Amino acid sequence: MQANESTVTSPRGAEARQETFSDAPCASDNSGALEESAPPASRSPDTPDSATTPVSANEAEKSIDEIREWRRRPHRARGLEIHAQYTAYRLDAAAPSDAIGQTPLQEVLPDGRTFEGLVSPVGKCGVVTALTGATVAMCLSVGGSGFGIVSSADLAYEGELFNGVPDGYGVGTFTTGHVFAGYWVHGAPEGLGQQALALDPNSDVGFGWYHGPHALQLVRPLHTPLPPPPLPMRRPSEQPLLGLYTAGRALEAQRRRQCQHVVSLWAARVCRASVAAAVEARGLAFESWRRAATAQAASCQAACDALRTRGTDPVLKERLDVVVARQQLAKDREVLRQARSAKAQQVQTTTVTCLGIERRSMALMQAELDDLDNELRSVRLARARCDAIHDEIADLRRRIEDRKVELHAMRRRHRPVVQPAPPRRLRSQAALPELPPEESPVIAYVCGVAGCACGVPKDVFRRLGAVWTGHD
């Protein structure tokens, strides 16, 4: 196994782990740039190291004054060293490393966890597995500091470690979905950093000073208005004291606003630097995770070779069965993943094809519906025109008939009524008295319509009856 200890050695040494103060001013002194938050349940400084074990409820809580002292604040050189290691890793990530003096090791730790990896005079690199399923992939130096990845039921952490516990700059994701990037102490956030649902180093949201899962102080936005400053005197009511008072209050407000702007910029800058160091430590932790997995595989291979050399067939068979089972499980998972991927691609292709056919069918149906709609609109317009023409023709016919009747009536009025000649009397034995004709200068015909020109007299039926009966 090849390992490069220069990329995993934490910049924190024995002297760096002492209670040192940062070169920058303490965040608690920036009352104008940081706003107070509710104090959380804190951790005791004597908490023993454990694999990301949360603080128990029966531990003594720190006072606000003890928290504000911030005795475990990081030294400025730590961030610079992390940046230098990260830059060297990015520029020379594929360079071969020296594996002299590394020995495979598999052991059971006193707390029941199992370590599988490689050890050397400068440190160890491997994977620690707990009975609960929590794993710690790490590469540590002799002093116990280094980088790695911690995976447990309540936390996923990538960054600096000390004896397998998150301690230093790093990025952690909680089960609630919150991501904290910044400084950690004993497996919990304690220092400057950023906490949000999604980590965005370029955003100022969530910047502040954290102690545990809660924020003691958050960076105040630059546009937050300040209350008017109180002056140690009463407001005068007469000039020129009133003008001097107003001018002094305006100058004091401007001074406070400028001070707030400067301090807010400084607070955001130091928080952004802490987040940047945590992100770089995260990159080194992923490299340590890769090397720890390689060391674990080398340790397992060395154990199998040792068992094969000693000829312990039952133990070797059991060990090989476990390894083969793991490999078979990995192959089965890969086959299942490929089958699911192929099925998903097939379903996606079929879905895309069906959607295309459906879109084309809908386009054709829409075109047909548009044509039918246009034809129906044309038919309705033609029907409306036909109805209008029919009504117009009926009106014209009615008017023509009315004009004809009026014309005949006018003709009848302007010429005398011609009485029909009396019929010749037939000789008969019986003589009927001749009835005088009814005098009607206008209505003289049988139809009884004024102005009618039918020419049939009204007494035609009487005369014909007399003729048929033989009475003259």
UniProtKB/TrEMBL annotation:
<protein>
    <submittedName>
        <fullName>Uncharacterized protein</fullName>
    </submittedName>
</protein>
<feature type="compositionally biased region" description="Polar residues">
    <location>
        <begin position="1"/>
        <end position="10"/>
    </location>
</feature>
<keyword id="KW-0175">Coiled coil</keyword>
<feature type="coiled-coil region">
    <location>
        <begin position="362"/>
        <end position="413"/>
    </location>
</feature>
<feature type="compositionally biased region" description="Polar residues">
    <location>
        <begin position="44"/>
        <end position="56"/>
    </location>
</feature>
<feature type="compositionally biased region" description="Basic and acidic residues">
    <location>
        <begin position="59"/>
        <end position="69"/>
    </location>
</feature>
<feature type="region of interest" description="Disordered">
    <location>
        <begin position="1"/>
        <end position="70"/>
    </location>
</feature>
